[in-house]
Description:
It contains 11 helices and 13 strands. It is of the alpha/beta class. The strands form 4 sheets. The chain has a 6-stranded mixed β-sheet with strand order 3-4-5-9-13-12, with helices on both faces. The chain has a 3-stranded mixed β-sheet with strand order 6-8-10. The chain is globular.
Amino acid sequence: MYSxxxxxxxxxxxxxxxPDNIRACLGDVRDVDRLxxxxxxxxxxxxxxxxxxxxxxxxxxxxxxxxNILGTLNVCRAAMDCAVGRVLLISSDKAVLPTNSxxxxxxxxxxxxxxxxxxxVPAGTRIASIRxxxxxxxxxxxxxxxxxxxxxxxxxxxxxxGATRFVITMGYALxxxxxxxxxxxxxxxxxxxxxxxxxxxxxLAMGVSxxxxxxxxxxxxxxxxHEQLLSDDERSRCSETGQSYVVLPHIRSWGVKKxxxxxxxxxxxxxxxxxxxxxxxxxxAPLIAAVPEExxx
Length: 297
């Protein structure tokens, strides 16, 4: 467990009753030498470090570059130098046709992860990415923000009535990580099969009424009404495995699974598309009820 957040590390260790088989290392992905110290002896690295608040990074794109792009490059370099077998980058649907510096940085991070296989695979390290929608209950999640608003009897801030997002539970996200690590050959982008929902439906599933929302408009920095999980170009070089679509890299001199062939039957993966399943308020309710309170592990 490697991060610069000593409080979060302490909370995780305490929540797990201080197990002997978890080693917590303080450090930053901007420090490649520190990463190498932490990676020695590791078989797998799951790279989730990122600056991700759209409004916060809008005025600090240089900091976003240092963590999200150069940090990813450092993780790849350190993993290769330490003979780590597999690296999986956690990405975001905001990397598809990005409209803000966060999305652009995640797009570039995916490209860094994919291209680095040219150098890392001959050294024994394979690197891939997995692209999520909104993880219910993740740090800074709308679920936690709205729970606080409900407790404090405040309106629930809503960007747009028609805004939609792809949603994924923490458990399903972990399952998809496991599957990607099992089958990855290097350079792929795994895109889990995800339903979409209207953002306001998350609040309705928490038991509030339609009148509980307050329209606040989109945050500065560039937010979309609808997200996408695949671009048109990616659909043209997509395959499928288990729980995910798999975007194959343009260049793959290191080789990929022979049975993974291009498929032209991948659906048009756009929010609100009638071909994509929608999560109803009723189906969202038990998922949100299962989200732990903020800070719980």
